[in-house]
């Protein structure tokens, strides 16, 4: 919990620092957008005082941090909306996309890794390993265009762009899921192979336990800690790092909003997105740490000692 707070404060300092180091005067950018022409120096100075930019940097940071802690991330320079409201509108759409992609990655990656571990050095194992290597290596934007060409243009099975139906969700969710699924498959294979060589696995088989029971109740369960770590990190990545995929499929989530803000140099909106994405990573990692104690009784016992 202490490291969670330290990480969040450090993240806020980095986010604020990026906004300070960004090129251009924020007051001048706001006035140029408002007036559609270069503003006079007097108006720029007045706008700087209004935005609190004439104060020392530590005072600006503490003011920004206190507002951010209350959910106030400032106003978008170009949209005229509160950054928190703009993010709140997009978060459910990105969360839905990330949740579906995470479920697909688990449903693909874990069974494929289990199959490769059980059929070690067989044809199925080699195929699974090659597929996982390709899936982990290919960038998401390339996968997105391949899926568009095959399933949207070729078979006309799914729409390319848009939002509002389950069909619109399929292609971006699969695109996001393939990379984490490949990583999960490789990790599941290696961890299950280690567990299958343990004494308690041989004991379970010697007692006559079925193969499915040995794999599900003993091998997979005792392999879940590293798998849970990857699932948690993948979920954090999907929530905060789906920029390119959302932009390619015109999915109106946080990623599409962030790229629009980057193109327009809307720094308060960029700061809000970076702070939210980083906070999601930190909180997900903390939740994974709590999940360790739930999965492994040895961790709970060690904590009490």
Question: Notable features of this structure?
Answer:
305 residues, mainly alpha, MetI-like fold, 15 helices, 0% strand
List the helices and strands and how they pair.
Layout: H1 2-21, H2 26-35, H3 41-51, H4 57-69, H5 83-118, H6 123-137, H7 140-154, H8 166-196, H9 199-206, H10 211-220, H11 224-240, H12 243-248, H13 254-264, H14 267-295, H15 297-304
Helix pairs in contact: 1-14, 2-3, 5-6, 5-8, 5-11, 5-14, 6-8, 7-8, 8-10, 8-11, 9-10, 11-14, 13-14, 14-15
Folded structure, characterized:
- With 305 residues, this protein is an all-alpha fold.
- It folds into two domains: 12-69, no CATH class; 90-304, MetI-like (MetI-like fold, Orthogonal Bundle).
- Helices cover 79% and strands 0% of the residues.
- It is built from 15 helices and no strands.
- The chain has helices at 2-21, 26-35, 41-51, 57-69, 83-118, 123-137, 140-154, 166-196, 199-206, 211-220, 224-240, 243-248, 254-264, 267-295, 297-304.
- Helix 5 (83-118) packs antiparallel against helix 11 and helix 13 packs antiparallel against helix 14 (267-295).
Order of helices and strands: HHHHHHHHHHHHHHH
Q: In percent, how helical is the residue content?
A: over 70%
Domains, number: 2
Q: Unreliable segments (pLDDT under 50, ≥5 consecutive)?
A: none
CATH architecture grouping of the largest domain: Orthogonal Bundle
């Amino acid at each position: 919990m202490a490291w969670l707070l330290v990480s969040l404060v450090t993240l806020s300092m980095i986010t604020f620092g990026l906004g300070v180091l960004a090129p251009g005067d924020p007051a001048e950018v706001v006035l140029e957008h408002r007036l559609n022409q270069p503003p006079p120096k007097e108006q720029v100075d007045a706008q700087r005082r209004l935005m609190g930019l004439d104060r020392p940097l530590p005072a600006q940071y503490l003011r920004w941090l206190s507002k951010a802690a209350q959910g106030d991330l400032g106003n978008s320079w170009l949209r005229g909306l509160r950054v928190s409201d703009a993010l709140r509108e997009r978060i459910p759409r990105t969360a839905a996309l990330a949740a579906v992609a995470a479920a697909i990655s688990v449903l693909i990656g874990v069974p494929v890794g289990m199959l490769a571990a059980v059929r070690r050095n067989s044809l199925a194992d080699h195929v699974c390993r090659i597929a996982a290597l390709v899936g982990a290596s290919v960038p998401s934007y390339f996968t997105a265009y391949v899926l568009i060409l095959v399933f949207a243009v070729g078979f006309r099975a799914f729409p390319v762009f848009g939002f509002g139906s389950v069909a619109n969700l399929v292609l971006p969710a699969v695109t996001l899921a393939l990379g984490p699924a490949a990583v999960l498959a490789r990790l599941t294979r290696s961890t299950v192979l280690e567990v299958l060589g343990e004494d308690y696995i041989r004991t379970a088989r010697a007692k006559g336990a079925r193969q499915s029971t040995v794999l599900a109740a003993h091998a997979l369960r005792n392999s879940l800690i590293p798998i849970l770590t990857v699932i948690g990190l993948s979920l954090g990545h999907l929530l905060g790092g789906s920029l390119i995929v959302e932009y390619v499929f015109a999915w109106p989530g946080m990623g599409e909003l962030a790229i629009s803000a980057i193109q327009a140099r809307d720094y308060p909106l960029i700061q809000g997105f970076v702070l939210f994405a980083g906070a999601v990573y930190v909180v997900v990692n903390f939740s994974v740490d709590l999940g360790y104690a739930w999965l492994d009784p040895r961790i709970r016992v060690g904590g009490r000692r």
